[in-house]
Amino acid sequence: MVEVRFLERRLASGMLAQVVRLAPKMIRVSPCFIRDAPPDETRLSLTLASARLGLPVAPVPPAARRMTPREIDGSLRIAARADARSGVACAPLRLLRTVAAGLAPGEILINANYFLFLPTEVSAPFDAYGDPVGLTQADGVIETPPQVRRACLLMSDAGPEIRRIGFADIAVCSAEGKEFTPHLFGLPDQTGPGTAFALFHGSTGGTTPPGKGLWDVAFVGRHAVALSEHGGLSIPRAGCVLRCANRADADAVASGPLHYTLPGVLQGVQSGPVIVESGETTEAKRDVFAEELMSAEAPRPDTVPVSPHAWAADWHGTRAARLSAGITGNGQLFFCAVEGTSSFFRDGLAKGATLHDLAHLMIEEGAVQAMHLDGGGSTQVFCEGGGALIAPRDVHHGMPDSPAQFDRPLPLGLVLS
């Protein structure tokens, strides 16, 4: 069973907070976004996403769902989620409370990643509200690749680790075994066939560079959504684009799922930033927000906003519910969830922890390494049967001053066992 401790702690800022400390033996990623959600959960997701975005929202199926190829706007689009639609696309999202009904006795389900959440993040044709941001790896299979070099929580046979990984750190191989070279961060002249592009890894304003006579294949996660000639193809935030020498090669590449490889890793999620290193907070050492491209001032080789866009990159200003992963000096993985409010809460004083609070809490609990996993309305911890170990606190953005509590639908969970 997972070791669970309920704590009342006075944080470094002086605030009292309810904390749940979780110490599992194992973790596994549960990628809900690769499967259809139940109809009632889809309706709730659309209601809350529409209120959040202030725009009409339409559901799209998982990227693996195929359809008969047809030409649209000069590109051959081959997945249902890339078809013409009205409104902003919304990826399959689940209520972790109901997902927890399927847990084994003694297991705990938590949230553990960022996802596309703002209008600026879902403006490209292949992006959907709810798509995970960065690495998601379940049972050795990478469903979405890392993008910018940002903190990842990884589990291998050797145990847990926290490591920064970017798109150029993985291997990319098509279904028929053709290898593609990930574009290096900020290297503009890597544009030939056999290149794998991601945002900030070779894109020009979010699209592939010109390539006369060359064919690009766009993937959301592992599955192709579009083919296009001569470059200029939008690059999905939750995927990549592979460049081929001709149409025949592009058709072959698009025929099956991609294989992303990160040697030795079985489970992985990406969030960030790293908040504790060598038993000390990273707050005073350097600008970790810029290092992990989590601040607007961070230099980047593109004009596209980095996800999560407008993330509150501060140590002391933003107080909300928080979730963090830490590793002790003897290699034990543990998590701390701090009960609090949504980052968008407007009804009274915000509750929870700042990043400064969270870092010092993790050090007090024995972390020599720690990273921020998520916060605000996404912070959720459920036991078998859907019981909440901390109170979820999202808001309905059509009712911003309502004290009502909502469970935010999410794309994946992390199962602790």
From TrEMBL:
<feature type="domain" description="Phosphodiester glycosidase">
    <location>
        <begin position="263"/>
        <end position="392"/>
    </location>
</feature>
<dbReference type="Pfam" id="PF09992">
    <property type="entry name" value="NAGPA"/>
</dbReference>
<protein>
    <recommendedName>
        <fullName>Phosphodiester glycosidase domain-containing protein</fullName>
    </recommendedName>
</protein>
<dbReference type="InterPro" id="IPR018711">
    <property type="entry name" value="NAGPA"/>
</dbReference>
